[in-house]
Request: fold
Amino acid sequence: MATSTQSTDFDAEKWVSAIHHSLQTVACETLGVEEAKITRAATHDAEASKIRGAYISLVEGDFSALLGLRGTKQDCEHLARMMLELGEDEDAPDEDVSGTISELANIIAGVVKSTIGFADLKLGIPMVVSGRVTPANQQEAASDLVQFGPVCLEIFLLYRRKRARKSAA
Reply:
């Protein structure tokens, strides 16, 4: 995952490694594809208005992050058909698409949690969003593209930088 800047408080490579491990686990065990093909340092090129995704918060102490999985409506629908074992000609209702992308984000976050080894890391409730979530002040982001068979999604991590502490005079 490409990070916008390096934070001294956050081991981005440790998290990237855990996320990549989780993507491979999900590809094989949940989606039934041989592997997740990951393109490092890439973002989805679709217009923001055509992107939808699921995001889940990860919190432990003063650390907080938002893990997201996002793609086009067509990719999310295809993902839902894969997970629900529907045929190519079967429609996946919108609530099933939202539920599927939320569940996949939850599964990925759970694998990341066990891989990263933060015993007290809490997972939030996944939320589905249309459009992109972008970093604000005091935040950094990392993203890669992941290919699950015919589906191309962006895996996205948004995390908070710690504020610089003022030294006592």
